[in-house]
Amino acid sequence: MHLTIIIKRPERTPVLKERKKLIDMKIVIDQLKKLGDLRENIALIELSSSDRIPLSIETMGMGFHPTLPCVSVGHWCDDGGGELLRDPQVIFAMTLDADGIIEALEPIYFRNDYTGVIERTNLAEFAQDWDASLTRLGYEAAK
After folding, report:
1. Secondary structure element (H or E) that encloses residue 109, with its range
2. Which position among 45, 57, 123, 136 has the lowest Cβ density within 10 Å, counted as fewest Cβ atoms?
3. Range of the domain at 105
4. Under a CB-based contact definition with an 8 Å cutoff, are residues 56 and 76 in contact?
């Protein structure tokens, strides 16, 4: 199952040129490239894989970081009482080209409500491993 919701925004966001911990989280970047200019789009994409928890990819615009557009990537699970828990959630600052197309991601926030971990060392390494795991588990980009 694949769900994409796009909301157009009129304001422009800055283009990020150089960052330190850029990663190529292929599964996320492939989906975001399909949206085109991310300076004008707010979107929610859900990818699923057999019996696995859906993967949510949500562009956040400028709401999380003061100067960079961001995207939230995570698995959200019901705790049984109606509250959604992150398992995990990573927020990335986006590197965009001059046309607003995604080029790379920089992980800037991690949270896992099941383990109680809100910060994580080696976040870029975790994101690369997570991308490989998502691909191995069948969360392939929709064709």
Report:
1. strand 102-111
2. 136
3. 2-136
4. yes
* Backbone φ, ψ for residue 132 (5° rounding): -65, -40
> How much is the pTM?
0.81
Can you tell me the distance from the alpha carbon of 54 to that of 91, in angstroms, rounded to the nearest whole number?
17
Confirm whether 141 is domain-assigned.
Answer: no
Residue-wise pLDDT for 53-95, tens only, equals 889 999 988 878 878 899 999 999 888 888 889 999 999 999 8
Q: Which two tokens stand for residue 25?
A: 């989280």
Is 142 among the domain residues?
Answer: no
On whether residue 33 sits in a domain, the answer given is: yes
What one-character DSSP code corresponds to residue 69?
Answer: -
Q: Domain count for the chain, please give it.
A: 1
Distance of CA 82 to the CA centre of its chain: 23
- Coil/strand/helix, residue 30: helix
Residue the block writes with tokens 């959630």: 89
The residue type found at 23 is I
